[in-house]
Amino acid sequence: QVQLVESGGGLVQAGGSLRLSCAASGNTFSIFAMGWFRQAPGKEREFVASITWSGGSTYFADSVKGRFTISRDKAKNTVYLQMNSLKPEDTAVYYCARRRSSLDNYDSWGQGTQVTVSS
Question: What does the alpha-carbon distance between residue 24 and residue 96 come to, in Å, rounded to a whole number?
Fold first, then answer.
């Protein structure tokens, strides 16, 4: 079992930046990849970005490419989402999640952190 705790959300003006953190604890040896997802009011949860734990390969949704970066600090068991050039449509609750292997879906989720971008 792995526990995930997000932090770093808040209120920011359009064009600003935020960095989200997700700290993992527990069975951190069972991480193939970590992902960030978001859910805006009235919308389904959507994929934002992911990173493989071992090799550091990254993937991004088209909507955030060029604006967001994802990184991980294996020593701290923490994954980061750096969000630049934020837009009002980035407003959502952001969740981090663990993927156990390449054959598994994301199965452990954090509680979420609110990001609000004002215009």
Answer: 10
Which whole-number Å values give the CA distances from 64 to 5, 34, 57, in the listed order? 22, 17, 16
Distances (CA, A) of 11 to 30, 52, 97, 103, 106: 33, 29, 22, 36, 27
Q: Which of 63, 102, 97 is nearest to 83 (CA)?
A: 63
Instruction: Tokens 């770093």: give the residue.
Output: 8
Write the pLDDT tens digit of every residue in 60-84.
999 999 999 999 999 999 999 999 9
Contact 112, 92 (CB under 8 A): no
Strands (DSSP E) along the chain, which ranges?
2-7, 10-13, 18-26, 33-39, 46-52, 58-60, 68-73, 78-83, 92-99, 106-109, 113-118
End-to-end CA distance of the chain: 40
What is the C-alpha separation between 109 and 107, in angstroms, rounded? Answer: 7
